[in-house]
Structure formats: structure tokens, C-alpha cells
From TrEMBL:
Keyword Transmembrane carried by entry: yes
Residues annotated as transmembrane: 55-81, 93-115, 121-140, 184-206, 218-237
UniProt keyword annotations, A-Z: Cell membrane, Membrane, Transmembrane, Transmembrane helix, Transport
Keyword Transferase in annotation: no
Principal cellular location given in the protein's record: membrane
InterPro entries in alphabetical order: MetI-like (IPR000515), MetI-like_sf (IPR035906)
Every ABC transmembrane type-1 domain range: 55-237
Pfam families listed in its UniProt record: BPD_transp_1
Membrane topology summary: Multi-pass membrane protein
Family from the record: Belongs to the binding-protein-dependent transport system permease family.
Entry's localization field: Cell membrane
Official protein name in the record: ABC transporter permease
Length: 255
């Protein structure tokens, strides 16, 4: 409760400074609407069905991208983390692809997939797959060899060892990677909607609102909603991590 109170106090302080700054003469009128104005615009937008569809489109694309990235990165990480020869053979390719910014691939993705929701999903998958992949690989590096040897003594096959021994041991690290990738995927989805254009989405709404004069309240309202979605996503994954994977954090603490 004390931590929650401090968090609310910080938000209240930020809104107060924003209100004072927005109503002062330090910025030209209309450049930075105060939160009281943005809140009214936000309520009106929530009552507008089209804006709700924009939010749903962004969240749906984010969820699909994160699900695909997890489904790809976890098995691939298990393979690379458990097979040193494969890991060494693919290291150059992985290290070459990983630093490429997702936004730099927007023209190529649009040519291949068009400007529909597929483009932002593909780019979000590309950006969010890396934290999950490397967290899975590094988790297997920390796996106790005694656990693997014991499973093999009892005749457990290699795939079953990965599924019943390696994956549960790596689960806290994998969850950390998923939580990081969740934020990255949301950023990439909104950025792609903003830069590449889209029929629906928060990024497209912000772009459309920003292209018209005197609509900074709508721009900020859309930005606030994007921030709220990101906060809720992170808080949800943080709760899941504390609720179901807290044992991983305790196991890492020194005795």
C-alpha cells in the first residue's frame, strides 16, 4: 500500500506540473494542452467507437506478435542452449540480425506483406523475439548439469529432458524475456502504425490527429492511452512473474 501511495503521489505531482506548465505562458497556446483538457478529450474518445477499435487493433496486433515471438524463441532457445555445436554455427547469423532496427525493415516488410496488420505484426515479432531467445539460452547456461545427468540415468530422452527439466528450470528467465519483449512489441506496433500507416491503430490515430492543426489534445490523449496500455501490460506480466515464478528469484539469491 505504501508503494502504491508513492506511485500515485508521483503521478499526481506529474499531472500538477503538467497542468501548471500547460496553463502558463512558457509555451504557446495549444502546443501543450493541460491534462484537464486532455482528460475531457480522452473521455470523448472512449465514447467514440472508432477510437475503441483503434485501441483493439493495436492490442490485438501486439498480442499476436508476442505470442508468435514466444512460440518461436522458446523452442529455438532450448535448441541453441542445449546444442553447443548448433549455437556456434548460428552465432554469426544471430549477431548479424539482432542489431538491425525494426523500423529500418519497414520498406522491405511493406513490399513483402503490404501495409496491412501483417506488417506491424511481422516487425513486432522480429523485434521481440531476441530478448526471449537470449534469456532462454542464458537460462540453460545456468542449468545444473546434475539435473540433466540424473534424468538421463533414468533413460529420459533428450526432447523430454528439454521439456521436463530444462524448460521448468529456465521458466523464470523466459518470463523475464517475455516481459521485456511485451514492451518492445507494443512500441514497435505503435511505431509502425505511426510511420508506415495503417487502417486502424493507436499510431494511425496519433498520426491523423497530429496532421490537423489545433488537435494536440487528441494527440496527447492517444499517447496517454498508449502509455496506459503499456503500463497495464507490464503490471500484468510483473504480477504473473511474482505469483508463479517467484521461486526462481529466491533460487538465485545467495545462501
Amino acid at each position: 500500500m505504501r508503494a502504491a501511495f508513492r506511485g500515485l503521489a508521483g503521478v499526481a505531482g506529474l499531472l500538477l506540473l503538467w497542468e501548471l506548465f500547460g496553463r502558463s505562458e512558457l509555451v504557446p497556446p495549444g502546443y501543450l494542452p493541460p491534462p484537464s483538457v486532455v482528460l475531457v478529450s480522452l473521455v470523448n474518445l472512449v465514447l467514440d467507437g472508432k477510437f475503441v477499435f483503434d485501441v483493439i487493433a493495436t492490442v490485438l496486433a501486439w498480442a499476436i506478435a508476442l505470442g508468435i515471438a514466444t512460440a518461436v524463441a522458446v523452442p529455438l532457445g532450448l535448441v541453441l542452449g542445449s546444442a553447443p555445436a548448433v549455437r556456434r554455427a548460428t552465432r554469426t547469423v544471430v549477431e548479424l540480425l539482432r542489431p538491425i532496427p525494426s523500423v529500418a525493415l519497414i520498406p522491405l516488410v511493406i513490399i513483402l506483406f503490404g501495409g496491412g496488420p501483417e506488417a506491424k505484426i511481422v516487425l513486432a515479432v522480429y523485434a521481440s523475439v531476441w530478448p526471449i531467445l537470449f534469456n532462454t539460452i542464458y537460462a540453460l547456461d545456468e542449468l545444473d548439469p546434475l539435473l540433466v545427468d540424473t534424468a538421463r540415468v533414468f533413460g529420459t530422452s533428450r526432447p523430454r529432458v528439454l521439456a521436463t527439466v530444462a524448460l521448468p528450470s529456465a521458466a523464470p528467465f523466459v518470463m523475464t524475456g517475455i516481459r521485456t519483449s511485451a514492451a518492445i512489441a507494443l512500441i514497435v506496433v505503435v511505431s509502425t502504425e505511426l510511420l508506415a500507416g495503417s487502417a486502424l491503430g493507436l499510431g494511425q490515430f496519433i498520426l491523423t490527429a497530429g496532421s490537423g492543426g489545433g488537435q494536440m489534445d487528441l494527440v496527447l490523449a492517444g499517447t496517454v492511452v498508449a502509455g496506459l496500455v503499456g503500463y497495464l501490460v507490464n503490471a500484468g506480466f510483473e504480477w504473473v512473474q511474482r505469483r508463479y515464478f517467484a521461486w526462481g528469484a529466491r533460487a538465485e539469491e545467495p545462501a
